[in-house]
Amino acid sequence: MFLYTLIASLWASDIDYITIEKGEAAPFSGKLMSTSALVQIVETHESEILRLDLEKEYELQKQADEFQLKYELYETRCTANTEMYQQMIDVRDKELSIQSKKDWIQQLAFFGGFVLGTTVAVGITYSVNQN
């Protein structure tokens, strides 16, 4: 993108250039390029920009796929945990239901034992005191 901006600014600015024919002396020192060499440089830069754009898109897609995979993994893990905890709650509720049924039976047995024990104690005391 930077290269496009640079090239556009170079084309838009007033660049001093001189067209030299074969055999003429250049009026400046430095490097002189032919038109085909300039075209080749521009094409090379454009192909390099295209390659870098494709690499960037590939990396972004790869990262997006990795994030999607991680998201799906976490979602699956959360769903599994939710189901596991729901099953644990169901088992606990069943156990509490069973315990509550046993609880009234145990209370009845306790009170029945107390009443029976009291009756036996009173009966023994009464029979001992009668003699």
Describe the structure.
By secondary structure, the protein is an all-alpha fold. It has 2 helices and no strands. It has helices spanning 2-12, 35-130. The relative contact order is 0.04.
Overview in brief:
The chain has helices spanning 2-12, 35-130. It has 131 residues and is an all-alpha fold.
Topology:
Blueprint: H1 2-12, H2 35-130
Low-confidence stretches: none
How many strands? 0
Overall mean confidence score, pLDDT: 83
Helix content: over 70%
Question: What share of residues are in beta strands?
Answer: under 5%
> How far is it from the N-terminal to the C-terminal residue, by CA?
119 Å
Describe the structure using short key phrases.
82% helix; mainly alpha; rod-shaped; 131 residues; single chain
